[in-house]
Amino acid sequence: MKYQQEIAKRRSFAIISHPDAGKTTLTEKFLLFGGAIQVAGAVKSNKIKKHATSDFMEIERQRGISVATSVMSFEYNGILINLLDTPGHKDFAEDTYRTLTAVDSVILVVDSVNGVEDQTRRLMEVCRMRDTPVIVFINKMDRDGKNRFDLLEEIEKELSIRLHPMTWPINSGKDFKGVYDLTHQSLLLFRAGTRADEDSVQIASLADPVLEKKLGENNARQLREDAELVEGVYGPLDEEDYLQAKVAPVFFGSAINNFGVREMLDTFIRIAPTPRSRMATSRPVHVQEDKMSGFVFKIHANLDPKHRDRIAFFRVCSGKFERNKYYHHVRLDKDVRFSNPYSFMAREKSIIEDAYAGDVVGLFDTGNFKIGDTLTEGEDFFFTGIPSFSPEIFKEVVNKDPLKTKQLEKGLLQLTDEGVAQLFTQFGGNKKIIGCVGELQFEVIQYRLLHEYGASVVFNSMPFYKACWLTAVDPAKLLDFLRFKQANAAEDKDGHPVYLAQSEWFLNTEISNNPDIQFHFSSEIHK
Ligand code: G4P
After folding, report:
1. In the predicted model, is pLDDT for residue 52 greater than 70?
2. Which partner from 293, 295, 416, 513 sits 20 to 30 angstroms from 96, CA to CA?
3. Mean pLDDT over all residues of the chain?
4. Which domain holds residue 138?
């Protein structure tokens, strides 16, 4: 119980959204409130622009930005907030999914005009899998959006989540007047661009005639009707339900106008979970244990291709992480220490002496880390629940320069350690197959293999649509299956057997023909 105060002070979370919903804008407003940046526009969007699929300069530039904004730490009202950034581009979804394993809660941004979009669905699936508490921010209320009741219904239905409005909007678009704060019974009047103190009006009750004065008769009447309905249906928020991911508080606002953002941030620091205890392979690891433990959830190559070292993002899960202290690297069974661990105070990296549960530390890595690696003070366990998702596009790697075979192999291993793609080796053969969730990954890999490792490759498309990890109680049955299905069988990097399915039909046929074999659609790195 030594570090109770440090733990109570911390909130580690991610903002997630479909691209363009306003994640970057909202992040920036948070940083402004936290005093971490002084001017708007300081946080560059880390999304890869849609047209830039083949623009490597853009990819390189983005890599730079995303290192700098991977974790942004700042203080707000005495609370230390670690905001973990997630790439918006869908081709980097795996990276996002893994980042979600390192946070304790999320804020989901939904565009009031577009409603629930593709990425929103996928991201929420991951949150649901992990019971991550969610706060929803419905953004762009200054635009003519969907009817607010319809929108809430759409979100609830599409994302299978129960919502709980904390504020209620008064119109939208040109007629957007502001929001009514259901918890504090105050009116927050919208004014594009800036906020002034007098824009927040405390009211005695919904019957208060100040509503007419501030909103006009029609809007006042509508708000009374809406608010009574909403209050009647929802009642006060049950914070325990939120922490158990059973209900998601909802705020309406406009990030670009910094409207409704502070109210959400204030609620966030009050109700969002402090760093939580986590499951490991041998036992649950309690957040208040004295001994340090944590795991690597993201690895980022150094921007300078001449230096092969990388940055491993390490989430502290218990105890106190200290500079220059030896820790046990469980997978390699060796002791390691770090002389320059750094923290991320909004875009500036600074060497730190110590860090506590909930913090993310940047560790210089010369190839010792893989995603999912665990450091402890001696005990052997791995944190569970770090997913490795089934890739959707598969290509065979063809080496164009046999003299660079070694470099190519090293490059493939190291790049796939970073988690940008998965590497499979054909069963009983040598063929290397890369699986990714997006096309863009292949271009990044090809470019980086050439520039960082001097290895020139081309890719041959393979007709697979899904990789399934296989397990069986009887190893002989599994081996038979792999032999029989050689053209579709492979091993992942850790030697786990994988079935590469051509189509859903083939997959379903194999599943029903082979009841002794279990097909898994995501491989958890450590079970
Ligand atoms: P993302 O990180 O989720 O991809 O979204 P981002 O914040 O970059 O916002 C996407 C676009 O939506 C930006 O416009 C941004 O200015 C705009 N936006 C964000 N919040 C609001 C809001 O509350 N109201 C309105 N009307 N627009 C909002 P852009 O034209 O794509 O980029 P920029 O040129 O403004 O940077």
Report:
1. no
2. 293
3. 87
4. 10-271
Half-sphere exposure of 523 (CA within 13 A, CB side): 22
Coil, strand or helix at 25: helix
Q: Give yes or no: residues 161 and 82 share one domain.
A: yes
**Residue 413 near residue 299 (C-beta atoms within 8 A):** no
pTM of structure: 0.85
- Whether ligand 1 lies within 6 angstroms of the CB of 142 is answered as yes
**At residue 486, what are phi and psi to the nearest 5 degrees?**
-50, -40
Answer for the pair 280, 384: CB distance below 8 angstroms, yes or no. Answer: yes
Give the CATH number of the domain where residue 363 resides: 3.40.50.300
Q: Which of 114, 175, 165 is nearest to 135 (CA)?
A: 165
pLDDT in tens, 363-394: 988 888 988 999 999 999 999 888 766 788 99
User: Are residues 84 and 57 located together in one domain of the fold?
Assistant: yes
Closest ligand 1 atom to the C-alpha of 18? 3
3-state secondary structure of 165: strand
Quote the ligand 1 centre to 140 CA distance (angstroms): 9
Residue that is written with structure tokens 């189509």 in the block: 503
For ligand 1, is residue 178 a contact (CB within 6 Å)? no
In 10 A of CB 41, how many CB atoms? Answer: 7
CB-based burial, 430-460: b 16+ in 10 Å, e otherwise: eebbbbbbbebbbbbbbebbbebbebebebe
Strand partners, 389: 522
List phi, psi (to 5°) of 27. Answer: -55, -45
Tens of pLDDT along 335-360? 999 998 988 765 566 888 999 999 99
Indicate whether 168 pLDDT > 80: yes
Evaluate whether 420 touches 436 at the Cβ level (below 8 Å): yes
Q: Which atom from ligand 1 is nearest to the alpha carbon of 259?
A: 23
Cβ neighbours around 24 below 10 Å, total: 22
